[in-house]
Amino acid sequence: MTTPDQSENDRSRDQLLAGEYVLGVLPLDQRRRVEDRIVRDAAFAAMVMRWQDNLSSDLDAEYGEERPPKGVYARIEKRVFAQNGFGNELARGGWWNSLLLWRGLSFASIALLVTYASLSTGWIGGPVGGSAPGKQLVAEMSGEGNAFGLRARYDGASGRLQLTPVAATTAERRSLELWLVPGSGEEAISLGILPESGSDTIEVPAGHRKRVENGASFAVSLEPLGGSPTGHRTGPVLAVGKIRDL
Amino acid sequence: MVSDREIAELIGRVGLRDRTAFTKLYSGVSPKLFAVCLRILKDRAESEDALQEIFVRIWQRADRFAPSGTSAAGWLVAIARNHSIDRLRARRPVTDALEDRTDIADLGPDPEEASVMRGEGRRIDSCMQELDPDRAGAVKSAYVEGLTYQELAERHGVPLNTMRTWLRRSLLKLRECLDR
Lengths: 246, 180
Prior knowledge:
The complex is a heterodimer of chains A (246) and B (180). With 246 residues, chain A is α+β, with helices and mostly antiparallel strands. Chain A is built from seven helices and nine strands; from the N terminus they run αααααααβββββββββ. Chain A has helices at residues 4-23, 28-40, 42-59, 72-83, 86-91, 99-104, 107-120, and strands at residues 136-142, 149-155, 160-166, 175-181, 189-193, 200-203, 217-223, 237-242, 244-245. In chain A, helix 1 packs across helix 3 and helix 2 packs across helix 3 (42-59). In chain B, helix 8 (149-156) crosses helix 9 (160-179). The two termini of chain B are 32 Å apart. At the A-B interface, helix 1, helix 2, helix 3, helix 4 and strand 7 of A face helix 1, helix 2, helix 3, helix 4 and helix 6 of B.
């Protein structure tokens, strides 16, 4: 049986452990145990976060600054961008062809894809914006663990983006917001909220069409219902995919 | 160092796999994060390795950063501190837990300090000032340099268990002061 005194003591003990972890005084094996607990115990994780915020706001200023030697960034870049096999995997069609994904596809979305495929051949229109007339681009977006995936097809002629969410499993009432991440390094542009089911098109504003090109990416983030309140991404990125020629 | 708002925005873009933003983030915050590595590891070559690893982690974790919550610079410094402290602990494994017999009930405020703890103020710096200067100093060097209880005890010339009690009591006082 837990008496109020005991649970008070447990709370203090947890507060201490969280504080000791953030201070950094624990040996390595205890650090690992604390990190495991952070993952599975939300109340404890909040204690750690609180200590983190409290101590860093006062003590991080103690560190000052020191420019690292030239050459370090080149090594980081090499590791990060070589390690980022996502683009390569897409190029090989690994994600799209994965058995797991197809197993997760609902009948409805397959049907929509088929409908789309037959409709798309009929798409006609004059050249608009910067993409080559009639050029078709595709991006397959997938998050870690493939909780859901999306296929985006862009038609350069009409400026229309065709989206098919696949195996979507968002539990709460939240919105999926689509972003265009220009290859040039400009800030991501919101293209709007994704429909909650099925396939739909989003019209890319004329001013942004020239940015839909090889090297740019589409990404989807999880946002409060109705989309990001700030115009910038506020939630986790669920999926990101490079745009390439179809 | 760039403003926290700018850092948050850059991390947001890095989460969307924006390489230009990653480069900008590196040039903006690497001096701070390198200083963290140097201060904790006290070895230039290892600090360079650590910095590489830290930026690889930033690239991998940027999509989990929620700008609405915590300070962006604090989030980055935490990644740098955690990695540097891990390296430090792996370098010299400490068998610190062996003689740890502190009871939580023994950690109430020192009688002579209890009266000082009544002041107002919820900010961490004012709460730090409420601690005995020696103990505030120990909290600070533990955080900033990643010292172990043993190293702190040596530096302050007190037995290990005394240092442990000092720091734990200080943590509980800080928590109480911040929650007040």
